[in-house]
Amino acid sequence: MMLKIKRVPTVVSNYQKDEAAEPARPVGGCGRKCLKACCIPDAKLPLYAFKKVNGKDLAVNECGEPPLAFLDSLILGEWEDRMQRGLFRYDVTACETKVIPGEYGFVAQLNEGRHLKKRPTEFRVDKVLQPFDENKFNFTKVGQEEVIFQFEASDDGQVQFFPNAPVDVDNSPSFVAINVSPIEYGHVLLIPHIFERLPQRIDRESFLLALHMAVEANNPYFRLGYNSLGAFATINHLHFQAYYLALPFPIEKAPTKKIANLNGGVKISELLKYPVRGLVFEGGDTLEDLSNVVSDACICLQNNNIPFNVLISDCGKQVFLLPQCYAEKQALGEVDPELLDTQVNPAVWEISGHMVLKRKKDYDEASEGNAWRLLAEVSLSEERFQEVNELVFEAIGCAELDDVNVERVKEVDEVNSSAQPSTVVVAGSQECVVLQ
Is 206 helix (H, G, I), strand (E, B) or coil? Predict the structure, then answer.
């Protein structure tokens, strides 16, 4: 049975700081109340100041099902407010959703509106790193009403909320805004240092901010995702996505095999019995330890032009890194025409097991075998995956892996093969061969 995220009204909180009443300032700029230089100097937007955590805090802060936290109520309440004001391109709450029968519990959603009304991709899909282009859509062009709050670290180490805070453009704050083409209830965007106009590219500081948001939410149903260029990011302006899904993602249930322990307490494992090969990062003596390892791995992939997706789960304690090659195979004409006809571009949510389908036919015929077949086309071959791993481990300073040898590679191939639904038969290329 599908669990529901409780809808909540817009809230005030005992975290909220008293502010002296100020006279209203006249609206200037272009009159659209955008986030560009013409309007933003006069803007006041809510500010959520989070408490930074250290390793000891994380060790005792288990990701369970706590009472509704203030960040949750703020996100969901403000998201609901924007829905009532008609700011979304379609009503995602009206989309049909079901759990697909099978061992993994893939989730299928019929979302025809996202396909028809989502902003188109405006850049090349064969380069992971591309310069920011002011002339193309970016998040400084959205209206201030799409912003839920500013998200920054607290100065005094305590959670604070200011409902009407000035925007310090010189320090380029980070924003949380609604995704106007949502996949799920509460779908938002985290846009680090929005006024720096950063391209879609992971860096250490921004990734740590995303982990802090996962920790602060402290809700196992709240995950953050990242898509690189070439892995179905559609906007070349640095952002993470996040939403609530009150079910485990199939990727979170997949078994793993530990392959390395790093200084700083970070454990690295490899996914098993899952159609997309990937790495799983967990632990760390501090949140920065985990963040630095994952972000350095992402930077390595970026610098080597390897598209990838990232899923942050378990309240920031677990991170999945998933290099992929679906767009490359599309360009080479190596994807099965039946899969192309679905028009599904497998990004982080699909790879994690939340299949956002665009045609009623695909939704009605959704099965674990069909989900596996699509995701298998995303995966690197075992040989290519190991080559990529070598690059990553060199970049993060881990020269030796546990039990990495020919027998282990053979074992992993056998395990993955035995897990694949027998109804799936997919052909692939040498560089991007599919699990057989």
Answer: helix
